[in-house]
């Protein structure tokens, strides 16, 4: 499968003499584990976006800060590109290796250095798994809020690099909102601290700039995350609708009432049927759409909010509103949602997961647009989304073995993202740009804005050695891609008025 | 008064030929209002930090974007520094003019361009006053959350430049958390959009980087802010304590219970007595400290939370807990707090307001430290703070006419900020660095970090023409200042163990 794959790295990559590099590394860092045989490199040729594959030149697995520092100094000196990765669960090819670069695997930095219940923070190494932080904090009644679907496997370093979200980020924020401090190494091996133990930090907000920068500005060596008290109770309501638009109005109604649910998720008929077949969550398979609304907090507040949300849902046209009657049913309701991607995968040999964000009010129009594009290109699209955030995950179903389907999937995927930009949204919510959406960045930003990104990148990494070819396209790429720059909706999407 | 004033601008400023510049400006932008007589310039010689004064070379009062664009192009071409300002209410000298620079007053950009109740945002020009946004949104039941004390007068452009806070930022966040999008002009006159109408934006987070950058990266020309539904009810509890430490523990207790108050403020005995004398708010004048805790939301939630908070307060040792019995009493409780600064001003000919942030858990230690420093330097210090955020505003009382008091106030102020840094906090919470705290930045950051700030600044403004000499010190200044670099508490404050 080769969907959307673009083999060109922007600009010429230097050809590195592998044997000379290996020798230099072994001399400089004798105790560093280095993989260089093809069979050892194979498992590292892709991340969670398996459609993109490249064999790295070398893989290194450091265990100590000094090893990373020396390695970076050497790469900086010799002009060798470096791609950092944690567990490799990313969905946009952000950790895709370079054939002429080193893949720096930070997985062995997996120690929890401190859990501080008074200060409500945890200080951890970058290779610690997201869920492991919450597990370590649990004895104190605390947890780390951002919960990407991959939280069992993904590492906090990768979460910071991609500014990961999750089903609870409407209420609890993205990774950037749950960080206090990040320690990094620059490509020159300098150790910097971004942020502070206090809630604000003077000077420019480099912590926010760094979060989500996809490994292009520095290598993360330590992360201090905020911990929150675990809510006393969480209840989930399931509402079913005969019309997708009504579900969209219900989302607006809940938020307009000043209620901030712990999670607010929507699935359309194709997605919910797939999930029901797979998980038997108890979803109404004849509904056009369902909403899952979780309310968490203290008992009395949650009870009150459940009543208010149920009223709003009915007013918006819900034909049925069910409160999960116990923890087991609540877990089932969520299991259906959390397994929606693999469930949809059972309907089709291949699917392509998109990650656009739109202003919430544009939900009905964008859904109509997606339906029309699906009909036009004769492909099915299942819609699963973080409705509260306006973060959509359309899943484009196709069969790569059918001639033309892959290309049609690629085309419709690009059009959906351009539609998101045209209504004032963006090409990614929580999966990042990585390698996958680098061309769409040309539609999102203008020439001056992309130049500014490069200038900021150069402030951290003047030689451009950290994860080159990801996240920020070159101006040359944009010229070749010939993007229609539908900047923040100012230039209309050609077909926007149709929807 | 000359407290903490440091007349040196970092690096040599070019000497600008005022008459030639005036002529060039009048030719390029014939309809631009320009002030150049000493008597016209006088009102602009300082901002809210009146201890720092400089007469600007010229003041310009543009009304249209194109005027600003042409002006900036001309300044860029001729190497003339530009300082932007809104209402000039800032408390750290961020809008202090330069004797060889243009003061760009954006106050006439005062139109509210759009209030969108469906999208829950308002699009406004930078000279719109903070409170005017909430007033325009009020008919839709919406408001703009950040509420600095100066909200009647301060402009949204200045709020963005300083990342302003307010008494409600514990729950509703700083300015950066309430923005969707900012349009700026670079010093070269390029128009850029940072952020998007959706909740996330791909690429580096330049919106967060820009917010709080104190006019050093670009000129704000339009701001899109988020609007929130106004809470149905708000109640405030007043708790009095015989020991300041108990009040500190109560703050931790409330937050540990998972309650996020709309506001959570502390005042010590000196501050609350001053406020009571001035406002007659009904504060217990014999208490060592009081806490004001506001709870907002829907009726039933707030009632429940009030009960829970009252329990926590009593457990922490509050000798009395009072719920404001009506709106009038609630307004009185807050009026005392909001007028604490002028109230303290009645106790002393001069006072100096600090703005340090510390990890909340360090509150008791830092309060002990401040008390000991006050005794040592024979000055009174009143403490007023956003306790929930760990943002302290110690007010140092002195009389500039008494020989030596000003110097002692200056010394103790510096020591308090260094103490904040030593316990892991920072030298500013919401007032910014500006001109005032530029030396303390040398204590907050190391050489590599300050170099990185300069590199980021250069990415936006290579010639360094935007607000030079504010926010980020030169390395030379730090060398001359001879700062003890107490970086993130790693190097101990010399006297830290005392407290």
Automatic annotation (TrEMBL), chains A, B:
* Pfam families listed in its UniProt record: FAD-oxidase_C, FAD_binding_4
Keyword Oxidoreductase carried by entry? yes
Reported EC number(s) for this entry are 1.1.99.14
EC category:
oxidoreductase
Extract the SUPFAM superfamilies matched here: FAD-binding/transporter-associated domain-like, FAD-linked oxidases, C-terminal domain
| Boundaries of every FAD-binding PCMH-type domain copy | 52-230
Task: Please list the coiled coil stretches.
Answer: none
GO cellular component terms given for this protein? glycolate oxidase complex
Source taxon at top rank: Bacteria
Q: Which InterPro entries does the record cross-reference, listed alphabetically? A: FAD-bd_oxidored_4_C, FAD-bd_PCMH, FAD-bd_PCMH-like_sf, FAD-bd_PCMH_sub2, FAD-linked_Oxase-like_C, FAD-linked_OxidoTrans_Type4, GlcD, Oxid_FAD_bind_N
The record's Gene3D superfamilies line, in alphabetical order, gives:
3.30.465.10, 3.30.70.2740, Vanillyl-alcohol Oxidase, Chain A, domain 4 (1.10.45.10)
Q: Which cofactor does it need?
A: FAD
Entry keywords, A to Z: FAD, Flavoprotein, Oxidoreductase
Please name the GO terms that the record assigns under molecular function: (S)-2-hydroxy-acid oxidase activity; FAD binding; glycolate dehydrogenase activity
What PANTHER family does the database record attribute to this sequence? GLYCOLATE OXIDASE SUBUNIT GLCD
Q: Which NCBIfam families match?
A: glcD, PRK11230.1
Return the protein name: Glycolate oxidase subunit GlcD
Source organism: Pseudomonas xantholysinigenes
Q: What is the lineage of its organism?
A: Bacteria, Pseudomonadati, Pseudomonadota, Gammaproteobacteria, Pseudomonadales
Q: Which gene encodes it?
A: glcD
């Amino acid at each position: 499968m080769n969907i959307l794959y673009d083999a060109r790295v922007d600009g010429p990559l230097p050809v590195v003499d592998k044997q000379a590099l290996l020798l230099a590394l072994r001399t400089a860092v004798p105790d560093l584990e280095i993989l260089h045989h093809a069979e050892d490199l194979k498992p590292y040729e892709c991340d969670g976006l398996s459609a993109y594959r490249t064999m790295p030149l070398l893989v290194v697995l450091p265990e100590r800060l000094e090893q990373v520092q020396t390695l970076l100094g050497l790469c900086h000196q010799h002009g060798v590109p470096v791609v950092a990765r944690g567990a490799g669960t990313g969905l946009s090819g952000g950790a895709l290796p370079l054939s002429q670069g080193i893949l720096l695997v930070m997985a062995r930095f997996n120690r929890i250095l401190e859990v501080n219940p008074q200060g409500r923070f945890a200080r951890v190494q970058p290779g610690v798994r997201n869920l492991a932080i919450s597990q370590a904090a649990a004895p104190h009644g605390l947890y780390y809020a951002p919960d990407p679907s991959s939280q069992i496997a993904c590492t906090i370093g990768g979460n910071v690099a991609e500014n990961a979200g999750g089903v609870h980020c409407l209420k609890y924020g993205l990774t950037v909102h749950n960080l206090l401090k990040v320690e990094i190494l620059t490509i020159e091996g300098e150790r910097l601290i971004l942020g502070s133990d206090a809630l604000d930090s003077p000077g420019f907000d480099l912590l926010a700039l760094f979060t989500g920068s996809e490994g292009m500005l520095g290598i993360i060596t330590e992360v201090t995350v905020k911990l929150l008290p675990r809510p006393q109770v969480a209840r989930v309501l399931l509402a079913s609708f005969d019309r997708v638009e009504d579900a969209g109005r219900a989302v607006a109604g809940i938020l307009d009432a000043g209620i901030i649910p712990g999670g607010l998720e929507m699935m359309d008929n194709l997605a919910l049927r797939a999930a029901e077949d797979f998980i038997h969550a108890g979803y109404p398979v004849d509904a056009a759409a369902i909403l899952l609304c979780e309310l968490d907090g203290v008992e009395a507040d949650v009870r009150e909010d459940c009543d208010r949300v149920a009223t709003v849902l009915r007013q918006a046209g819900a034909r049925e509103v069910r409160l999960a009657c116990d923890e087991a049913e609540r877990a089932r309701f969520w299991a259906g949602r959390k397994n929606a991607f693999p469930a949809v995968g059972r309907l089709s040999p291949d699917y392509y997961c998109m990650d656009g964000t739109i202003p919430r009010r544009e939900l009905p129009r964008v859904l109509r647009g997606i339906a029309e594009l699906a009909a036009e290109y004769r492909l099915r699209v299942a819609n699963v989304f973080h409705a509260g955030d306006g973060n959509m995950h359309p899943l484009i179903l196709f069969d790569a073995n059918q001639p033309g389907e892959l290309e049609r999937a690629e085309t419709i995927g690009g059009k959906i993202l351009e539609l998101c930009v045209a209504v004032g949204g963006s090409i990614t919510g929580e999966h990042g740009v990585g390698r996958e959406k680098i061309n769409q960045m040309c539609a999102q930003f203008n020439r001056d804005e992309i130049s500014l990104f490069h200038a900021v990148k150069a402030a951290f990494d003047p030689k451009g050695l950290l994860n080159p070819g990801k996240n920020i396209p070159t101006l040359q790429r944009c010229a070749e891609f010939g993007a229609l720059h539908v900047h923040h909706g100012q230039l209309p999407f050609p077909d926007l008025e149709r929807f």
